[in-house]
Amino acid sequence: MALAIFDLDNTLIAGDSDHAWGDFLVHRGIVDQEDFKRVNDEFYQDYLKGQLDIFKYLGFALSPLTQHPLEQLHQWRKEFVEESIRPLLLTKALELLRNHRDKGDYLLIITATNRFVTQPIADLLEVDELIATEPEFINNRYTGKVSGTPSYQAGKVTRLREWLQHNPFDLSDAYFYSDSHNDIPLLEHVGNPVVVDGDERLLQTASERGWEIMSLRP
Fold it and tell me: In what helix (H) or strand (E) does residue 52 lie, and over which residues does it extend?
């Protein structure tokens, strides 16, 4: 059994779930429609440039979770998955997951996006496990803070190493699929790095290092 690791946003789905959740909150009028969208878009551009201050962003992104009852948040999330995520599912991505599953591989998503947003997406994709940024949750409410290391850039390597302490897979024959130059630190740690619809910086690195390049888009 090999370990098959997947980035989520713009890799297994045709969009960014974190940014889409922000847009969903804006469109529903749950957050300030002008200011929240502007800041959400600015942070997304920072991410694309590899310049995101992850803790500053998480302070922004997790704040709506602190302002509403858990039952309401879960209802909104259910609607979000149906309205915003299902249209982003990619047939070729589902086939890729199925191929690894049929080979007996262990399927793991590792994403910088927080678990509140991504857990139902991981369930929808039927992967074995999810490593995501963990929002702090105390006394049945979100605090707006982060628990542990965010799984972003080198933080993905840290979180994976922590996970491997209890799940002894060999990274020398592991796969990692990603679209983003932010994931180069983890791509360097696996025996089979695969660039999926990569950004310009990642494609250049892949070309220089001889990494596999593929597309899951129609």
Answer: none
Q: Please determine, for residue 33, whether its predicted confidence score (pLDDT) is greater than 90.
A: no
Helix (H) or strand (E) segment spanning residue 176? strand 175-178
Q: In this predicted model, which residue has the larger pLDDT, 33 or 102? A: 102
Q: Catalytic pick from 7, 23, 105, 199?
A: 7
- Element (DSSP H or E) covering residue 214: strand 212-214
- The CA distance from 191 to 28, in Å, is 44
Element (H, E) at 196: strand 192-196
Contact 93, 12 (CB under 8 A): yes
Give, in order, the Cα–Cα distances in Å from 111 to each of 33, 116, 138, 216.
26, 12, 22, 18
Return the amino acid letter for 77: R
Give the C-alpha separation, 136 to 144, whole Å: 7
Catalytic, 7? Answer yes
**What's the rounded Cα separation, in Å, for the pair 134 and 41?**
22
Rounded to 5, what percent of the chain is helix, strand, coil? 50, 20, 30
Active-site hit among 9, 16, 23, 105: 9
pLDDT at 163 over 90: yes
179 is catalytic: no
Q: What are phi and psi of 153, to 5 degrees?
A: 50, -125
d(Cα 17, Cα 114) in Å, to the nearest integer? Answer: 10
Give me the pLDDT at residue 213, please.
98
Partners of 39 in beta bridges? none
